[in-house]
Amino acid sequence: MLRGIRTLLSVSIALLLIAGNALADELIMKDGSRLLGEVVKRENSTLEFKTSYAGVIKVKWAEVSELNADKPMQLMLDDESTRTAQQIKNTEDGIYLDDDIEPDLSEPSLAQSELAFINPDPWRTGEGHKLSGHINFALEKERGNTDTDEIDIDGDLTWRYRHDRFRMFGELERDHNNNKKSKDKWKLSNSYDHFFTKKWYAGAFLGFEHDQFADLNLRTIVGPKTGYQWFEGREMNLSTEIGPMYTDEDFDTDEDNDYIALGWAIDFDRFLFEEFMQFYHRQTGLWSMDDTGNLVWNTWTGLRFPLALGFVASTEMQVEYDSGAAQNKDEVDTTYTLKLGYMW
After folding, report:
1. Cβ 154 vs Cβ 175: under 8 Å
2. Could you tell me which residue, 189 or 93, shows the higher pLDDT?
3. Mean pLDDT of 85-109
4. Cα–Cα distance, 55 to 181 (Å, whole number)
5. Which site among 110, 190, 202, 306 is 20 to 30 Å from 64 CA-CA?
6. CA dihedral of residues 254, 257, 262, 268 (deg, nearest 10)
7. 3-class SS string, 139-184
8. What is the pLDDT of residues 165-202, one digit of tens each?
9. Could you give the CA distance from residue 50 to residue 38 in angstroms, rounded to a whole number?
């Protein structure tokens, strides 16, 4: 009887292993290698495939030969329509799906350029939204011959819907030296974008700036804009935008000023060395239409190093240029910062 129980257990375990393999998705590479696991998604030119022994691995789509899934995969096409497939064969001639899987028997189901995503994030198909952002801190406390306290906080949030996007950015710098305030400045910007094509968008911008030691009580910036999203994804993002901005400057001692400016913005980031670090560059500018010698230009350039559990370390150079700065105030302000933050 004991032998019978052992036999039954052996058969049961074998059946479970077979069933586990049968339920696994299959990835076949063009070099003939074969992996079992789960298709996560394909975005841009990269396929993410989850295995039990190595977690999520990333492979170039050009190196993929076939995908055979246990459950239908959702495909999003370049025209934003969707369809499903359980089998995909990737060839130089095009992409074959399900019943058209044999290249010699039919024309490709899709051209390579038609397939935008496999298992796209829900927000891309109009289901919900994606929330992403960063928050960073840089703190310094020194006691001795000089008592110094410095605090720098900055962060950004992005709510991304299928055709709409809301973005916020803010930063605060406040320093004390021997119990006397030596720096008090902050910025806050809000942006709304509506995508009327995959790349082109239009929207509105509202921003505020304060810098006590540059004599700037408040700068208010508001206006419409249009932009182009060159790249959008985890690996790389690049957007450029431009528009007329009404700018009102309230100074503590100098004469107040208001004008129409040509405003622009550049926002770029890219992971390097398989996500070992992320390079980023953000730039905003205002060029007065009334006085072309009046230019306000800000840049943030740096490197982020992912640590663990979403935490990141960053090094950044910030340059602020204001040709219309108050009298006896520097036109250029350059800051170098080391930060610890969180990214999601």
Report:
1. no
2. 189
3. 81
4. 50
5. 306
6. 50
7. EEEECCCCCEEEEEEEEEEEEECCCEEEEEEEEEEEEEECCEEEEE
8. 999 999 999 888 877 888 889 999 999 999 999 899 99
9. 5
